[in-house]
Specification:
alpha+beta, VC0802-like, 6-stranded mixed sheet, 4-stranded antiparallel sheet, 10 strands, about 35% helix, about 20% strand
Length: about 260
C-alpha cells in the first residue's frame, strides 16, 4: 500500500462514524420503550438492570488460584483481566429498528426472571425508579419474522412453560415497521403449539398467568413468555408504581406505535 493510500485509509477510519449493531437472530434481552428521550432511557435501563441483576444473579466468589497460575507472565495476566472485563458486560444496547424502542441484549440465561423480579419489587414498594424508561419486556429468543421461523423458535419455550404444568395464557402480538407478517397465522401457530404440548392449557384474555409476547420489528421477531404480564400492566414501570389517586394519568406506549393484543 502506497503512502497516499495509507493516508486515505487512516483519514477514512478516523472519520468513520461508529454504528451500534442491530437486531439479529438468537438474541436474549429486554425490549425497552420510551418517549423520545432515548439516551436517558438507556441510562435508566442499565441502572435498573444492573441493580437487580446483582441481587438475582450475584457474582460467584473468586476461586483460589492454582500454584501454576501464580507464575503467569504479565501478558497472560493482561489477557485474563481483559477477558474478565468483557465477561462482566451483562447488558449492551443494540439498535432495534423502531423509534422510541430500544433493545438491550444480555448474556444472562434468564431475562424473564430478572424482569419479573424488577416489576414485582417496584409494585411491592411503590417506588418509581425510572422517568424515561416506560416498559421493560423480557425477550428470550429472536428469529426471522416469518411464521415458520417463529414457530420453530417458540417450540422450546412451549416445552419449557406449558408442558408439565397446565396454565392459562394469552398471546400479545405487536408489529412495527413490518406489515408482511400475518398476525392471525402467528397467533394460531403459537396457540397450537401450546395445546400440542399439553391439551389442558386454557386461553384467558383477561388475567392470564402467562402471556406469550411476540414483537415484530422490521425483519426480526422477538419472543418472550412473560408471567403476570397483564397483571403487572404489561410491564409498564410507570403504571405499576402509580398510586390509586393517579390512575388514568399513567404513561402508555410511545405515540405512533402499533399494538395488537390477541383476541
Amino acid at each position: 500500500m502506497s503512502a497516499i493510500q495509507k493516508s486515505k485509509h487512516k483519514y477514512y477510519n478516523k472519520n468513520k462514524k461508529f454504528t451500534k449493531p442491530g437486531l439479529d437472530v438468537n438474541l436474549k434481552g429486554f425490549l425497552c420503550s420510551c418517549n423520545n428521550r432515548e439516551k436517558e432511557c438507556v441510562r435508566e435501563a442499565y441502572n435498573l438492570l444492573n441493580k437487580y441483576a446483582d441481587m438475582v444473579f450475584p457474582p460467584e466468589p473468586p476461586k483460589e488460584q492454582a500454584e501454576e497460575n501464580l507464575e503467569m507472565s504479565i501478558e497472560d495476566e493482561l489477557k485474563k483481566e481483559l477477558s474478565q472485563i468483557k465477561s462482566v458486560k451483562r447488558f449492551q444496547q443494540i439498535e432495534s429498528g423502531a423509534k422510541n424502542f430500544l433493545f438491550i441484549k444480555t448474556i444472562l440465561d434468564d431475562p424473564v426472571k430478572l424482569a419479573q423480579t424488577i416489576v414485582s419489587e417496584l409494585k411491592s414498594d411503590g417506588s418509581q425508579q425510572s422517568r424515561f424508561l416506560i416498559r421493560l419486556v423480557p425477550i428470550e429468543v429472536t428469529c426471522k419474522a416469518y411464521v415458520k421461523d417463529i414457530t420453530v423458535a417458540f417450540m422450546p419455550l412451549a416445552e419449557k412453560y406449558f408442558k408439565d404444568n397446565p396454565t392459562t395464557f394469552s398471546v400479545v402480538y405487536n408489529h412495527r415497521n413490518n406489515n408482511s407478517v400475518n398476525r392471525d397465522e402467528v397467533i394460531q401457530a403459537v396457540a397450537e403449539q401450546v395445546f400440542q404440548v399439553n391439551s389442558n392449557n386454557k386461553v384467558d384474555l383477561k388475567i392470564p398467568n402467562i402471556s406469550i409476547v411476540i414483537e415484530v420489528i422490521k425483519g426480526i421477531a422477538l419472543i418472550g413468555v412473560v408471567p403476570d404480564f397483564i397483571k403487572y400492566k404489561k410491564y409498564n414501570l410507570l403504571l405499576i408504581t402509580e398510586k390509586d389517586s393517579d390512575k388514568g394519568e399513567g404513561v402508555d406506549l410511545p405515540s405512533g406505535s402499533e399494538t395488537q393484543d390477541t383476541k
